[in-house]
Specification:
The protein has 14 helices and 25 strands. Strands 2-1-6-5-8-7-12-11 form an eight-stranded mixed β-sheet, with no helix packed on it. Helix 12 packs parallel to helix 14. The longest helix has 36 residues, at 405-440. By secondary structure, the protein is an alpha+beta fold. The chain folds into four domains: 1-151, no CATH class; 157-261, no CATH class; 316-375, no CATH class; 485-602. The chain is elongated, with a radius of gyration of 43 Å.
C-alpha cells in the first residue's frame, strides 16, 4: 500500500502490517487496525484518499479533512469505518480508474480500504462540530464529539438539531416562487425541503432569528408564531408540502414555530458592593466582629479587644464623594451647598465639620446664589419716600437717641413736600423731551429709547445666577470621527436599501473604501449588503468583500475585532454564508492565525 509521511513530505510503499514505519530513519507513523476488530474507544488516526490511493495520518491542525495532503484535492464525501476507524474520502474531481471509491450515498465500494470489510446496513450521516466535517458512518456514537447517532430526529425540535441529524440526500434548499405559487429548488433558498417516506415538509433555513423582522420578512406566510423575537428557532409542527406536476412543491398546511429568547447573562455582584448595600439599608446595625482565633497552649496576657465605632459603608462612600447627609431628611448633599436640595433645611456646622474651614470658590458662589434666591422670595417693607433719588432730601439719623421726636417729624414733612415738587417737575420735563424725540427719531431708535430704562432696572444678582448656571457648559463635547459618522450613514442606507438602490450603494462603498484603505468596516458592511442579494453571484461577492475586510483587519491589527463581529453576525446577516461553507471556515482560520495567505480573495475571487 502507499503511505505518505506528513512530517517528511514524502510518499513510499509499505506492507499492510502494524506499526507503519516511515522509510526515513525508521520513523514510526502509528498503528492501523487492518483486521477490523473495532477497538474501543474509537480513535480517528488515519485517512485514505480514493484518488491518489495514499494512507496518511490525519493532521487536524492544518487542513484536517478539507483536502488531501498528497494530491491537494478538496474532499466532497467522507466515510468513517466502524471497524478500523479509517476515514475515506472522495474529491470533487474523481478519477475514473481506481481501486476504492465512494458512491453517491457515501458508501465505500467494494469495501473499506483499511480493513477490507463492507459497509454496514444501518448508516448515519453526522456533522461533527469538533472535526468541522460531515461524514457517513455505521457507528452509534461519534468518537470526536460523543453525540448519539442512532436517534432519529423528531418534532418538536430546534431547526439546527433537526437539520444536523437529517441526511444530505434528503435535504434540498428551496425558495417560494410567487408566480407558480410553489417551492422551487435554489442554491441559497430561505427554506430547506426535507423529503421522507411518508411526508415532505419545509423548514426555515435560519436556525436563529436576529430580529423580529426576520420572521415577518421570510416565514410569516408559511408558519405561525405566537411571539416572534430574536432567538433560537424551534419547530413545533412543520409546514407540509406536496409535489406538483411542474416539479415544484405546493404548500398544503402551515406550520407552527416558537422562538426561544436568549436569557441575558447576569453579572455577579462583588462582595464589597453587597456589604455597602446592607450597611445602607441598616445603618444602625452593629458591626460584625471576626471570629476569635483559637487560643495557644501557652497562656498569654493580652488586653481585651475594644469594639471601635464604625461608620456605615454608605456614609464612608458619601464622604469620599465630598457629600454630607442632611440632618432632617437624610439626603446626601454636596458640601458646596449650604442648604439641602430636597427639604431646604440648612446644613448644620456639625455635618460639615469633616470638611475644610475654607470652602472652595464654587461652594461660596452656590451658597450666595441660594441666599439671593431666598431674599427675592421674602416680602420687604416699602422704604420711606425720602430715601430715594435725591441725596439732599435724605434725612440723616440722629447720632444720639435723645433727640426730639418733633424735629424729626418736621424734617420728614419738609422732605416729603420737596420730593413731591421735584417729582412733578421731573415728570413734566421727561414728558416734553419724549414727545420731541419721538417726532424726530426713527422707529428703531425710538424702540431703543423705550427699552433703555427697563435695562437699567436689572440687578446684578441674576447676572451671578446666569454665570453659575453656565459654568457646566464649558465641558468639552465628545467628538465623532468622520469615518465613524460616514459608516453609520452607510449602514443605515444598507439596512433600508431596495433592489433599485443597491447598485448605487455598491458604488458609494467603492469610493469610500478607496478613501479609507485601512478601515476594514466598509468592506465588511458591503459584504452584508451583498449577502442579502438574490442573484447567483451574491455569495461570491459577499465572500470577496469579507476577504478584503479580513486583509485590512489583519494589517491594521484588528483581526480579533472582526472575528468577534463574524461570530455575532453568523446567525443574522451572514447566516447564508456560514451554512457549511468552506470559504467561511478559511476566513475564520485566517483571522485566528492572522495569516492573509489563507484568504479566499487570493485564490478563487481574483
Amino acid at each position: 500500500m502507499r503511505v505518505f509521511c506528513t512530517e517528511h513530505k514524502r510518499g513510499f510503499f509499505a506492507p499492510r502490517q502494524s506499526p507503519i514505519k516511515c522509510e526515513n530513519r525508521g520513523h514510526v507513523l502509528g498503528t492501523l487496525d487492518f483486521e477490523g476488530e473495532g477497538r474501543v474507544p474509537a480513535e480517528i488516526l488515519w485517512q485514505y484518499c480514493c484518488n491518489c490511493e495514499h494512507f496518511c495520518p490525519v493532521d487536524f491542525e492544518r487542513d484536517g479533512l478539507e483536502r488531501c495532503p498528497v494530491c491537494t484535492r478538496r474532499s466532497s464525501l467522507l466515510y468513517l469505518c466502524d471497524r478500523c476507524h479509517v476515514i475515506s474520502f472522495e474529491s470533487n474531481t474523481p478519477l475514473q480508474t481506481k481501486n476504492f471509491t465512494l458512491n453517491a450515498d457515501g458508501v465505500p465500494q467494494p469495501s473499506c480500504p483499511g480493513c477490507l470489510r463492507p459497509a454496514g446496513a444501518d448508516l448515519h450521516e453526522h456533522f461533527c462540530d469538533e472535526l468541522n466535517a460531515a461524514f457517513i458512518t455505521a457507528l452509534n456514537t461519534c468518537p470526536a464529539c460523543d453525540e448519539r447517532l442512532d436517534v432519529a430526529p423528531a418534532f418538536p425540535s430546534s431547526v439546527a438539531l433537526y437539520l444536523k441529524r437529517t441526511r444530505s440526500a434528503n435535504k434540498v434548499k428551496v425558495t417560494f416562487d410567487y408566480e407558480t405559487e410553489s417551492f422551487v429548488p435554489v442554491e441559497d433558498g430561505e427554506f430547506v425541503l426535507v423529503t421522507n417516506n411518508d411526508q415532505a415538509f419545509v423548514l426555515p433555513r435560519a436556525p436563529r432569528f436576529a430580529a423580529r423582522r426576520d420572521f415577518y420578512e421570510y416565514y410569516q406566510d408559511y408558519y405561525h408564531c405566537p411571539s416572534p423575537d430574536a432567538g433560537e428557532v424551534h419547530i413545533v409542527r412543520p409546514a407540509t408540502v406536496a409535489r406538483t406536476a411542474s416539479g415544484g412543491w405546493k404548500l398544503e398546511t402551515t406550520g407552527l414555530l416558537e422562538v426561544v429568547v436568549d436569557q441575558p447573562k447576569t453579572k455577579p455582584v462583588p462582595a464589597v458592593i453587597r456589604e455597602e448595600v446592607v450597611a445602607s439599608k441598616a445603618p444602625d446595625a452593629k458591626p460584625i466582629m471576626p471570629e476569635p482565633r483559637p487560643t495557644p497552649l501557652v497562656a498569654e496576657t493580652r488586653p481585651a479587644p475594644v469594639a471601635l465605632e464604625t461608620k456605615p459603608a454608605a456614609i464612608i462612600a458619601a464622604e469620599q464623594r465630598n457629600e454630607t447627609p442632611c440632618s432632617e431628611c437624610g439626603a446626601l448633599v454636596e458640601s458646596r451647598y449650604a442648604f439641602c436640595w430636597k427639604c431646604g433645611h440648612a446644613l448644620t456646622s456639625e455635618s460639615r465639620s469633616s470638611r475644610s474651614n475654607n470652602p472652595p470658590r464654587g461652594s461660596l458662589l452656590a451658597s450666595a446664589i441660594a441666599l439671593d434666591d431666598d431674599e427675592l422670595t421674602v416680602q420687604h417693607e416699602i422704604p420711606p419716600s425720602n430715601s430715594s433719588m435725591l441725596p439732599w432730601t435724605t434725612v440723616k439719623q440722629p447720632d444720639h437717641p435723645s433727640s426730639s421726636r418733633g424735629s424729626v417729624l418736621k424734617l420728614i414733612a419738609i422732605g416729603g413736600v420737596a420730593f413731591l415738587l421735584v417729582s412733578l417737575g421731573l415728570f413734566g420735563l421727561t414728558r416734553s423731551n419724549n414727545s420731541q424725540m419721538a417726532s424726530v427719531a426713527p422707529p428703531q431708535q425710538q424702540q431703543v429709547v423705550e427699552n433703555k430704562p427697563a435695562a437699567t432696572e436689572t440687578t446684578p444678582q441674576p447676572a451671578v445666577q446666569t454665570q453659575a448656571a453656565n459654568e457646566p457648559a464649558t465641558e468639552p463635547a465628545l467628538s465623532v470621527s468622520p469615518e465613524d459618522e460616514l459608516l453609520a450613514r452607510m449602514r443605515e442606507r444598507r439596512m433600508t436599501a431596495t433592489n433599485d438602490e443597491r447598485p448605487r450603494i455598491f458604488e458609494a462603498f467603492a469610493k469610500i473604501e478607496r478613501k479609507y484603505p485601512r478601515d476594514y468596516r466598509f468592506p465588511y458592511e458591503r459584504a452584508k449588503l451583498a449577502a442579502k442579494g438574490s442573484l447567483s453571484g451574491s455569495r461570491d461577492a459577499a465572500f470577496k468583500a469579507l476577504s478584503a475586510a479580513a486583509e485590512r483587519a489583519i494589517s491594521a491589527g484588528k483581526a480579533s475585532e472582526m472575528l468577534t463581529g463574524l461570530e455575532t453576525d453568523k446567525a443574522s446577516d451572514f447566516h447564508r454564508l456560514a451554512q457549511g461553507r468552506q470559504e467561511w471556515t478559511r476566513l475564520v482560520a485566517a483571522l485566528k492565525r492572522k495569516d492573509t495567505s489563507l484568504l479566499l480573495s487570493k485564490t478563487q475571487f481574483q
